[in-house]
Amino acid sequence: MRSSSFPKGMLAIADLGCASGPNTLLLMSEVIKFVHNLSKELGQESPELQIFLNDLPGNDFNHVFTSIQGFKENMKKEMGAQAFIVGVPGSFYDRLFPTDSIHFIHSSYSLHWRSQVPEGLEENKGNIYLASSSPPCVLEAYYKQFQTNFSSFLKFRAQELVTGGRMVLTLPGRRGEESSERECCYIWGLMSIALNQMASEGLIDQQKLDSFNLPMYMPSAMEEEAEVQKQGSFAIERLEVWDMNWDAGYEGEVTSLPAGDGGYNLSKCMEAVFDPVIAHHFHLSREITDEVFKRYGLLLSDWMAKESPAFVSLTVSLTKRH
């Protein structure tokens, strides 16, 4: 955007996988501030902003909408920014916007989710995602699902972005092709342990556990780059691989969990995301679901006391080719 082609009338921005909660509008506030400051730097008025917040239809858009009016008023008061915000329910693996209508697309920690659980995971019993005990056919099934989804994502975004439009995508991933299980998958291995313990005690159904696999895939930087190059509509401006400790950024109260509070805090974060997935698949009561995450928190705490595990994340900046 730092060029003479910076839009002077209207700037269309989309946040894909916006979710619902206090962070939903945080990214948009940063974008608005950037646009405002850059406009001043270029000596021109800030463009009007058309902001699209996208997530699946089941997202709590009502909660998002109740926050919009106050957000718009604050942005206008602080910077004189005029922002028009709408919700766009739908999968980002399908078309979402008209052709050549969007200037900037952002997505953070959403693109690791696949459109469906890959087919052919029958031999992955005892695991809920990739693990060292997963046979090669399971890895291949997950990888093919990633290729299918990410190729569709790039194709549709290329149709929707204007020429020279940009995307910034951040998602959990792996450093390289031979990355260890601990780098990207061990956090799910601990969940597998908790679920298998409870199945052995008859607290959850063993058959349901055998059929449970998470619909996601954490690609390596090379895999992500290969798909971008194969699709051909985008140039990679920057691709970064970075680490974040499992308990980074926690500033809450210390808990009384015997094994320490780090695992408890991370377990609560994971529960916010995966509680609906687990409850839906296993049809568990609230009491049993709470027990799942209690045990998971203890396993996390024990592991974090021995190791310094980190999430690996990929951030890529892409520009649509002419």
Automatic annotation (TrEMBL):
<dbReference type="InterPro" id="IPR029063">
    <property type="entry name" value="SAM-dependent_MTases_sf"/>
</dbReference>
<dbReference type="InterPro" id="IPR042086">
    <property type="entry name" value="MeTrfase_capping"/>
</dbReference>
<keyword id="KW-0479">Metal-binding</keyword>
<dbReference type="Pfam" id="PF03492">
    <property type="entry name" value="Methyltransf_7"/>
</dbReference>
<protein>
    <submittedName>
        <fullName>Uncharacterized protein</fullName>
    </submittedName>
</protein>
<keyword id="KW-0460">Magnesium</keyword>
<keyword id="KW-0808">Transferase</keyword>
<dbReference type="InterPro" id="IPR005299">
    <property type="entry name" value="MeTrfase_7"/>
</dbReference>
<dbReference type="GO" id="GO:0008168">
    <property type="term" value="F:methyltransferase activity"/>
</dbReference>
<dbReference type="GO" id="GO:0046872">
    <property type="term" value="F:metal ion binding"/>
</dbReference>
<dbReference type="GO" id="GO:0032259">
    <property type="term" value="P:methylation"/>
</dbReference>
<keyword id="KW-0489">Methyltransferase</keyword>
